Every structure is written in C-alpha cells, then in structure tokens.
Protein 1
Amino acid sequence: MEERRHTSKQYETDLQEVKENLLYLSALTQKAIEDSIQALLDRDTDLARKVIANDALIDKLDDEVEEKCIRLLALRQPAARDLRFITTAIKINGHLERIGDMAVKICEKVALLNEEPQLKPYIDLPRIAEIARTMIRESLDALVSEDVELANKVRREDEVVDSLNEQIFRELLTFMMEDPRTIHRALLIMQISKTVERISDHAKGIADMVVFMITGQNVRHQWPAAEEQAPSN
Amino acid sequence: MKQRANNRDVGNSHNDDFGSDNIIVKTRRVNFYYGAFQALTDISMDFEKNRVTALIGPSGCGKSTLLRLLNRMNDLIDGARVEGEVLFEGMNIYAPEIDPVEVRRRIGMVFQKPNPFPKSIFNNITYGPRLAGVSGKAELEALAEQSLRQAVLWDEVKDILGRSAMTLSGGQQQRLCIARALAMKPDVLLMDEPTSALDPISTAKIEELIDELKKTYTIIIVTHNMQQAARVSDTTGFFYLGKLIEYNATEKIFTNPDVKQTEDYITGRFG
C-alpha cells in the first residue's frame, strides 16, 4: 500500500534526508571495512593510512545525522512510526560511527603487521569481514524496504561470525604454541578478527533496531531462532 | 440487519451484568442521529474509574457528539436521537425514569470557552449547590473553598470572592468553571477542549490539574491537540466519520497503534 505523505512537505523531506544520510554512512563504513581488509591482503600501509584519515568524514556525518534527528524530535514531536524511525536512526547512526572506528583499529593493526613477514595466507579473515560487510548492507536494505525477514536474517548471521572468529582464534593459538616468534603477529591478527566480530555485533544491533522500527517490538536482547517468523505489524 | 436497542424500549434500566468494578461508564452499540444524519455508528466503549480518557479525531468525527451524549446534553438539540445504551454505574442514563438533571450533576461538563456566570466568584460556585438544596452559610463557604482548592484556584481568589467572575483571566475563569462543576460533587468530569482557548501557561496548569483530579474523579476529554492527549490521558479513542477506529492505552496509540488509520492521523498523514 502506498504510504501517505505528511501534510508538511518539509517534514517529509527532512525524514527522507535522514534515511539517505544513513545509507551514505553505511556505504562509507562498508568501503572502510573493504579497504582495511584489502590493505591487510595487499600489505598496503598507504591504503591503511587512507582509511584512518577518511574516518573524519564518517565522524562528521555522524554528528550531522544526530543533529538532524534531535531537531526533528524537538520541532515535530513525532509519534508512532516517525518516532520509531527517528530513535532508530539515532541508534543506527551510533552503530555506524563505531563501525568506522573499528575499521580504523583494523588499519592500525595492519600497519604494524606490515612491518613483519606475513605469518600465513589469510583465508578466514577476508571471509569473516565480507560477512560483516554484507550484514551492514543488508541491515540498511531492510530499513529502506521495511523487510523484517531480511533484518532477522542479518541477526542470525551474527552467530556465524562468532563461530568463525572462534575458529580463527583456535588456529592462531596452535601457531603460537608451536613457535613463540609468531606470537606478536598472531595476536595482531586475533585482534583484527575480534574487531570484525564486534563490527558484526554492531550490524546485528542495526538489524535489531530495524525490527523495532517496523514492528514496535524490542528484540535487542534476544537472539532469533533458526527459522523465526516475522512478528506481525 | 443488526439488532439495535432503541433507548425508548429499555424498560429495565439496570444492567445486571455490570462487570468489572473499575468501569464507571459504558456505551453499548450507540448510534446517534441529528435528524436524518447519523453522527455516531455502533460505539461501544468502557471508561475506567479514576482514569483520563482522551477522544481524538479530525473535525466532524463525532468525538464532541459522543462526549455530550454521556451526560445527555444532546437532549437539548431538536431532532437528536440516541440508540443503544449509555450505562453509568450499571444504569442506562437514557431510561425514561432517569432525571437528566441528576445525570448532569453526577457527570459534569466543562466547555471550550470558559463560561462563568455574570456573578461573583463565590456565587458562581454556590449557585448549583443552592439550587440542589444546600443551605447554611458555613456549609456553602466550606464547599466553595473545597471546590476552589481542588481546582487550584483558591490561593488566587480567596481574598476576592465577592468580585465578579468576569474580572478573572481566561485561565482563571476556566479553573472557576472546573471548580463550579466539582462543587456538585460529580463522579465523572467531561471536558470539551478545555484549554484550546487558553495560553500555554494556563494550559499547563489545567493539565497539571487534570492529573491531580483523576485521583478522585474520572475524566473524559475531547482535544484537538494530540500532544495534549498524549500528555494527560491514560487511554485514547480515535474517531473518524462517526466510528471508533481504535481505543487503546495512550502509550500504545502514540508509539505503535494497531490500526493504520490511527497512525496516519497521529503522524499527520491524513486527508
């Protein structure tokens, strides 16, 4: 059913702008993750430094989105779906900004790793990072298309990332036990993996808020069952 | 065709299955007509004691008509006709043996435009009780003080009770009208857009008053101001074209209403 427009065109425009800003922020953070892993794979410290510098743009946009949302709360006294959208936007904004910070942390570790020979081929790390990046993209898709099932799919993916992270830890542990000279590099790689796992947690947080926005239900502290039915509106 | 009880046919006005002790007023399948025009369709609502219920909806939706129906103010309109039942403490107020004046004492009303009598402040309060048979200077003075205190007006007028009510400000006049209604010791207070003619500070004072009054009275308020409905009420009924579209806890209505039409209205996506 076509959504009715608000009586005030300006208000409708303002809401749309917040949505677009979030999509742009999501694109920036996905690129940051992609580039940080590329910097790891290519041992490219320059690329890592570029990601770190670009975080300033993410921070600036985060401030702008938050200001817009607070302004809307003050001036429009939104109710129901508008209220849920704006409070969701504020939280998603926070998650995306933190994800940007995590891409910076990854790049800091990459710069350190590039000062030593590569420990091992990176197979699982790019995999885990790609899953996390897809989770961010799909959670924002779910916001725009108001798709509860897609949001719940993202929420389930968090567990996959958690398992993969543990796998990476176990593998690196065997390296460290066999040869203490690998400890420094193994710990750096573990930290990168842990950071990606935290990115995935934030992406799940975004998906939780999307479910709240669509259904009004708070699922933040729940984990979806394997085949969860979408709650009805 | 659904069966409707014509109020004139109700012989036994007492409803034995009154139900929960908490419900003070009920409407049962009420239809209301101004001549040939049907203003309300099939309205069934329970109003809980010591709660504030807001009635919202666009102009012409029937919310003020329903309010006036609850204390038989519509009786004064030519061509007005009610079907169904309006139960107050289990009794149908439209039953033939019921005195509408007594109904209006138990279910008082405050209107949009303050309408004090052109009398002194004191006589405004005591006029109704004196007509009802209250006499004795001390008793009337005590009643006036109690009512004015309940309306949070006593401190402002205690030294000028003899002055004309017309010299009071709009907000004070409205609180005087509330005190006047309270002097009749009602159970229910109906308020038809009580603050729409007042400034923001007077409005805030009256909203504060409503919050205080609900400890003792049941309040039903019609308002165009949705933020006011959200601030003061416990439950909200949304009306459209004479029908009750949704009736729910106020928090639910304003965060996650069940019906799309309700959401469209409260988010301003109406019309």
Protein 2
Amino acid sequence: MHSGDNGRSSRGIVLVPYLWLALFFLAPFAIVLKISLSQTALAQPPYLPVFDLSAGWAGVKDFAGQLSLDTYKLVGADTLYLLAYLKSLEIAAISTALLLIIGYPIAFGMARAPRAWQPLLVMAVVLPFWTSFLIRVYAWINILQRDGLLNEVLLKLHVINTPAAWLSSDTAIYIGVVYSYLPFMVLPLYATLEKIDESLLEAAADLGCPRRKTFWLVVLPLSLPGVAAGAMLCFIPIVGEFVIPDLLGGSETLMIGQTLWTEFFSNRDWPVASAIAVTLLGLLLVPILLYERLQQRSLEGGR
Amino acid sequence: MQRTSLFNIVSVTIGLAFLYLPIATLVIYSFNASRLVTLWGGWSLMWYQELLHDDAVLQAAWVSVRVAVLSATAATALGTLAAIALTRAGRFHGRLLFSGMVYAPLVMPEVITGLSLLLLFVALNVDRGFWTIVIAHTTLTMCFVTVIVQSRLVSFDRSLEEAAMDLGCPPLRTFLIVTLPLIAPAVAAGWMLAFSLSLDDLVIASFTTGPGATTLPIRIYSEVRLGVKPEINAVCTLMIAIVAAATIFSSLMAKRGAVRRKQAALGAQV
C-alpha cells in the first residue's frame, strides 16, 4: 500500500496543506516573536525597527542590533500583566474542574443510555455547539442582568429580596465558561466511556465487587484518556478566552486575553501585545504538546 | 455500558436542560412585544420587521455568509488532503511538525492566532479586508475538517482500496471512486462545521478585518457591548434556526445514504 505510485502521490498530497499551514500558522509566530522584541513607535506600522531587506546585510545587522528585551521587562515589571496571567490560570483551572464534575455524570449517563438513543443524545449535546458561541454568551446576559430572568425567578420564589448583581462578576464568567465549553468536555468523555467493554463490568460484578467500587476501580481508570483529552480541550483555550470575560466579567481584574486585546486595539501597542502573546504561548506550550500527543495517539493509532 | 439508572437519567436531563434553557429564553424573548427583558408584552414579530430595515446588520450577514462559504470550501479541500496525508502517506519528512501544525490550532487561544495572522498580513503588506478574513478562517477551520475526516479514514476498511488497486485501478481513480464516496459524509460534516465556525468567529475576524468588511459577529458584538437589544435576539434566533435546520437536514441525508447503501449491499448479495 505504501509502495510505488501511491506513496509518491500521497507525498504530493502532503505538500499543499503543509505549505498552507507553514505560511499561515507557523510563520506568523516568527513575526510575533520579532515584533515582541521591537519598540513601540508613532508610525505605520506602529513599531521599530522595520525590517528592510533592500539595505542588504548591513540592514540585517542594523536591524538585529535594534532588537531588545525591553518590552518583556515592561511586561514583567507591571503587576497588571502578572495578575492577568494568574487570574486566567485560576479561572481556567477552576472551570476545568467544574466542567469535569458536571460533564462526567452527563457523559456517563449518555454512555449507559439505550444504544438506540445514543446518537440522538450525542446530537443533542453537539447542536448547541453549532450555534454561535457569541450568541450563547449573549443569551446569558439576558438571564444574568439586574432586571434579568434569574433575578426575577429568585425574587418570585422569595430566595432573595433585592435583585442581586450577577453580571460583571467571576461567577458570571464561570457560568459562561462552563456553559460554552461543556460539549468539549462531554464528547471526549463519552467517546472513551462508550468504548468500555461491558464484560469487564460484568466480571467485576460476578466477582462480588459492589457497583460503586467497580466505578472507582474499573470505569474511572479506563476513562482517564477521555478525562485528559477533555481537560486539555477546555483548559488551553479558556486561559486565552476573550469573549466570555469581556461580556460577562467585571472590570477590576482582567484575563490575559482581554489585556492582549486592549493593548492591541485600544493602546495600539503592538510590541506589548506580541510579548503577551509569546509569554502566553510559552505558558501553554506544555499543555498543548500533551494535547497533541493525545490526538496523535487516538487518531493515528499506534504508528 | 447499558444499564440505565435513575441517577443517569437525571444527570443527562439536567445537563441537556442546562444546555438548552438559555437558548430557549433567547428565542422566546425575540418574539416579545416589549423592549424590556423582564416584561412580557405578548407575542410579536416587531423585532424581525425592524431587522428587515437594518441595513448594517443585513450587510454584515451577507459578508459573513460569503466568507463562510468560501473559507469552508477551501478548508474542506485542504483539510481533506491533510487527513489523507496523515493516514495514508506513512512516514514522510517533517510528519511530526505537520501533525503538530494540524492539531495546534484546535486549542490555540484565538487571540494568539488572530494577532499572529494580522502581523503576517502587515508584514506582507496585504490590504486587510474580506480576503484576509477568508484566509484566516480557512487556516483555522481546515484543522477541524482534518480531524473529522481523519477519524473516518482511520476507521474504514482499507481492503476495499487495496482490492481496487490490485485489480489495476490507478491511485487517483481509486481515491475518486472508492475512497471519496466512503468518506463523503465526514467531508460534508467537515464543511458544515467549518461553515458554522466561520460564521461564528469574532476574535480572529476582528484582528484580520479591514475597512468595509464587517462580519455579523463583529456587528453583533458592538451592539451587545451596549446592552441587550431585542433586535439582536431576533438575529440570533434566525441564526439558530438556520443552523438547526441544516444539522437536521444533513443528518437525515446521512441516514438516507446509509439506508441506500444497505439496500445496495443486500441487492449485491442476492
């Protein structure tokens, strides 16, 4: 199969997507790195030095001489950025834990539902994911705002006496994040739980293992690849999340995605925005590599 | 794994309710005759009528649809090629880098992808606007297509391809008449996912857009920042209806295809 003509034509097939991703995904990172080492300037583009190939080798040397770590020193010295990184990590870690706690029973219930129902349940979980992310976050503004539905229901039930401020708080961010990312947690969990061989559970039961103990000793360890995949799939993008904290969160502590956005769009400070992006990427490198290993193993088999 | 207990039923039900209730409230309030969210003023289509006269939103929607169709089509072609490369090409030079580049955009925070693409376009001195959004969305969504097509390619019986080739069918023809029909549902699902991801994207489009290319999410976002507007509820309801209809339609098509294939297989046996 891999020999002769087919091997060669497959190799030709590789080239087009390879070059596309190299140009539009990999190469831009080099540019981000370069600009993070530049200085802000009141110019178009708003940074210095500008790479000038026409000046030849002397131009390249001149250019390299002007690069500096100043922007990183700035980012490192200002506690605003440090706090934003810590806040993002905290929110991502707690949300991932919440997603696991909420998502696992749902995935487990789905895997144990009658076979005929399962495709329907999977579709029911996927469908909200196909509707716009922005819309789903926006839906929560309707519910959480001061004169929104949640307060109305709670007032009617006499749980609270005065309307509570749900919006612009960490609680709102957690609600939005858990809501938006739930399908990303449930689906990988379901995929591993559904594959667990029924006979293993029967064997445990035959040997007198109580159902609860079977869960901890058999089901949970077998589902760990799904737990890891779901956790990575949620944790990594949540750290850099922008839309949810921007629409639902408060203004006192920002997440790092918001900080990057403000530096870029409001302050027009491209070097600082780039330095934030590079640092964020460095922070997420280990989880991203872990995620890639998991993907390679599940999609490319034991190759 | 089949033994349905009360606990399982309850957790699935609550989970689905959590997923659908917010969307349901949004849909219901788009028909509200009152401007206030809490006040129910009776059923009305007034926000939809208002929408028809909102040129800015309609224009943004048209930009979004064109971007989504173009980028989903390009992404499906590139993503399918990448999936074939990863499952059929065996070992090749730079394979690890390639699969790394395919999987990383799936989890990469959008602010990073958006910023880096913008800086690339600035460095290449490209005018930003419609086409830069198309390129950006193609890059992001092709990776989702790859993963979907790849999982289909991994699971199907390769002996069919081998049989065709043993009988002297050239590789390209084998691909067109054996492989492609088999992976067609996954390719279609990939296109649909790419389309809806593109229609949905705010962050990457905001970075890569230019004058005159305002997409629907960019438009909605700028309105939403100012507070809830019933009109936006109406836009969102329409988008949800379109996506739901498309999803149900495509799953019905897939089912019909499966039934037809089954009948064909039975016919072949007789």
Protein 3
Amino acid sequence: MRRKTVVLSISALVIISGSFYGFNEYTRKNKDLVSVSPDVQISATDLIQKFETDETSANKTFLGRKDFIVAVTGQVKEINRDENGYYSIVLGDVNNMSSVRCSMDSLHQQDARDLTKGATVSIKGAFTGFNKDDLLGSDVILNRCVINKNN
Amino acid sequence: MHKLTFFFIVCVLLYGTAAPAQDKFYTKTGKIFFKCTKSPLEKIEATNRSTTCVMDTKTGMIQFAVLMKGFEFEKALMQEHFNENYVETDKFPRAEFKGQVVNNSEINYAKDGSYTAHVKGALQIHGETKTVETNGTLTVKGNDILINSTFTILLSDYKVEIPSVVSDKISNTVNITVEGVLEPLHK
C-alpha cells in the first residue's frame, strides 16, 4: 500500500513537471536581447568586410546556432520606418553601398526614435544572414535588435 | 559672351528634359507574411521585414530576395522548428523570385493610380524552383511604386516535409502576402 502511494506520487510529480516544462517550452517567446551578452563585438565596417572577403568562412562563424548575438558599432546611415511603424537602422560607411541592417525588436521600437543620422551607435541583434547584392549593395542582416547600452 | 551663356543654359535645359526617366525601383524593407494554419487553435504565421525587391519598369522585370532566417514567429519553438527542421535555413539561407510583369505595357508608370499586374516567374525556396503565376497590385504614387500581392504555394512542391505528428496543425497550402514601397534607384 505504501509502495503504491510512493509510485503514484512520483508518477504524478513526473507528469506535472513534464506538463509544466512542455507548456513553458510551447509558449516560449524569443529572448529579449537587452539582457543577453553578445557572442561577438565588432564594428559595422569590419563585419561587412568579413562577409565581402569570404562569405563561406564568415557564415561558418555566424550561422549554425539558434541565436548568434552580434553587438555592432557603426555610423547611422539611414533610419527607416515602415508604414506599420517598425524601425530598421542601417549602419556602415556612407561611401560604401554595403551595410549592416538592423531590424528593431517589436518591444524596443521606441529606442530607434531617439537615434540621429550620422551618430555612432552600438546595436545588439540576432545574426540572420548576409544578403549579397551587386546592384543595391550587400547587407548583413540582424533581427530582434536593441540598442546596446552596455557598450 | 551673353549669347554663349544663353546657349549654355539652353543646352542644360534640353539635356534635362531629354534625360531618360527613372526605370529601376527598389526596396530593402519589403514585407513578406505567410500563414499555413490548419487548426483554428494554433496560428502558424510569420513575418519578414527585410525583403529586397528590384523592379525595372521599362522591361517589367521584377526580383525578390529574402533571408529565410529572418522570418519571425510569435513562438520561439515554432521559429526554431521552421529554421532547423522544415526549411533548413542554414543549408538554404535565401529564397528568391525572378519574374516578369507580363502585362507591363498596360501599366502607366508616369501616371498615379492603381494597376493590376500579372506576374509570372521562378520561385526558389529550400533549393527547389517552381513557376509561380499570380496577380498583384502596383500603385504608382508620386515617385514611388507600392506593390502588393497574395498567392499560395504548396510545401510539398518545395520538398518541405511536415512530420505526421504535426500534420493536423500545419497546412500544406501556404498563403503568402508580399508588400513593399519601391523607391527610384539612383546610381
């Protein structure tokens, strides 16, 4: 009788904690990058150069993980706001067509409003990829971006 | 001397009016939204806001490029499954569409207004290329061209396999909406 109670209690505990873990995992949101330490800190011009010189080798470093967080510092070339109010900040050298494009996190759109063109800023974002384009200029894309205040 | 100045001004004015009109338009902040929800209990949809599009109004050529890893889902787990198991974004990072506005001659890019565009081209996703044909709207507004189109594709056409355990949640038919504001390309 006592053994049965112990077995039942353990089973109930396993089921409850399993369900709790499953539910948490199922409803998990993408991490807010404000409190996440970057995997790499780099300047916008160096980041662009890495991909323009050897895309395959740079992809090996930056891709292949769930989240590779990049803290990038550079000059603000453009501040774009789409018709739904979403901001993307373009960093890099104004004389180079290639850039780092940072799509701001939906929870941190207000941070982009205070930026000014020409200012130097540090932005933290999840590496999304390199979009090679000979006509428009290539871009390194970062998503879920936040202003890196720890810089 | 005055005659020479006058001649110079006339030359500049004539050159100005005879200069070719802007043909190429582009955006790097186009939006692609897709949904493949099957069960009303669970929304399966994602948005990408970094889509590149270039259009040549003279020839009707239109191209899109998008980084698949840039699609954002509401739930992190869904996004991870999309990247790792379904479209394998590390192996196939980009999706592309290269096509043509078939009825380009019917669109007056010099006049503000909304026009129906019949677009046909090759869509590459997950390393597979298929022909896609759809109607969209091109709205000429001042210097910009606003594009909007909704069409469907089948996941099976692009060899995206859905495990049977989630087949009651993920539809094989994907509804895709493309939107963007194209600006003149000054080179």
